[in-house]
Amino acid sequence: MFGTTASLTLFAFAPFDWFLDDLYGAFMEVLARVLGMPALEYAFMQRAYLAAICIGIIGPLVGTFLVHREMSMIADTLAHTAFAGVAVGLFVNNALSLSLAPIHSALVVAVGTALLVELLVQYGDVSTDTSLAMVLTGGFALGSVLITATDGGIAVGIDAYLFGSLATVSKASVGLLVFMTGLVSAAVAVAYRPLLYVTFDATAARAAGISVTWYNRLMVVLTALVVVSAMQVMGVILVAALLVIPVATADGSRSFKRSLLAGVLVAEITVVTGVTLSYQYGLAAGGTIVLTGIGLYVLSLVYRRLGVPTRMQHRTGRWRLNKLSERIHGDATAEPKADGGSDDERR
User: Fold this and answer.
1) Which backbone phi and psi does 85 adopt, to 5 degrees?
2) What is the DSSP letter of 201?
3) Among 121, 172, 174, 112, which Cα is nearest to 142's?
4) pLDDT reading at 7 higher than 80
């Protein structure tokens, strides 16, 4: 469903076939025998796991920047406009008897929408959340209108895009996702420092000669690429969760780079566990992955709230020193007076 002849021609070449069937496929078969999981020998499950691993990489790579910019909602907005793009592709196929891949039309619409949001914020004299709300509702409205315009004729075809499916992850889809993973990873690696500067202090970045507008547009375009690439497994409705939940779970790292890498690790655990549970119990892949991610987030939140020391804190002794200081000095939040001393000092 997600592939076309052009996609197959592009991605089903000898090196990728060799990697997917001979290298990766052989590794998964060995892993299936070692773990006693026959499902890993099935070609569609091998493709699903590879797609999930790719999503687990690119989701936090972009999501970490979005969360620290407090722009998490843009992922949900682009997901809903990607739904409109899917509906456009299916509508054109139904009305004109063409073979346009809906994922390609979703990619075009999502990237165009990402740039539209930036233009609305920059020139439309509207706030970011207002522009996101208008574009989100407009995209979903367009999709629903196109579905009903064909008397529901494309409603069946759009279900897999809405909720995600392991069975519909084709070789062409995996090839596209592997390509997008390389593209997004390379873009973040090359533009890492300017993106980091713009994320934490856009004013200083602009004063330093960095094109804040250009890097803002780069970030929203990368978000669109991630959303469209991941929706084949996650579904349009839930795809934004994988850009936010792993990042929130990994929050608290000592540096931005560690937070980013920790988010990728959490995302990989989330998607692999979610895909496994989805297959074992016949559940929706996207929903299972999201619920797994929320479960990990709750565990991390409880872990942090209980004040459990991290390994780094144990190693440096900082946690013990902090606790000892609290016992000796008690509440150290006394407000200093104008002369720099406290009431006790002046008495």
Assistant:
1) -65, -40
2) -
3) 112
4) no
Give the DSSP letter string of 122-180: HHS---HHHHHHHHHHHHHHHHHHHHHHTTTTTHHHHHHHHH--STT--HHHHHHHHHH
Contact between 53 and 205 (Cβ < 8 Å): no
Q: How far is residue 244's CA from residue 224's CA, in Å, rounded to a whole number?
A: 14
Provide the residue type at 20 as one letter: L
Residue 341 to residue 232: CA distance in whole angstroms: 63
Tell me whether residue 181 is exposed, middle or buried, using C-beta atoms within 10 angstroms of its C-beta: 0 to 12, 13 to 18, 19 or more: buried
State which amino acid sits at residue 76. D
Give 167-193 pLDDT, tens digit per residue: 778 888 888 899 999 999 999 999 999
Percentage above 70 pLDDT, the chain: 81
pLDDT, averaged across the chain: 81
Closest by alpha carbon to 50, among 162, 165, 164, 173?
173
Q: What is the pLDDT of residues 136-153, one digit of tens each?
A: 889 889 988 888 876 655
What lies within 8 Å, CB to CB, of 56 at 6+ separation is 242, 246, 264, 267, 268, 270, 271, 272
In terms of Cα–Cα distance, which of 250, 207, 198, 205 is closest to 59? 250
Q: Is the pLDDT of residue 229 over 90?
A: no
Res. 315 pLDDT band, cuts 50 70 90: very low
Contact indicator for 237, 162 with CB cutoff of 8 Å:
yes
Place of tokens 């496994």: 276
344 phi, psi to nearest 5 deg: -65, -40
Taking Cα atoms as reference points, which of 172, 148, 163 lies closest to residue 231? 163
Q: How many whole angstroms separate alpha carbon 80 and alpha carbon 82?
A: 5
Domain boundaries, the chain: 2-239
**DSSP, res 233:** H
Give the burial class of 117: count Cβ atoms within 10 A of its Cβ; 0-12 exposed, 13-18 middle, 19 or more buried: buried
Class of the domain covering 2-239: mainly alpha
Amino acid at position 264, single letter: V
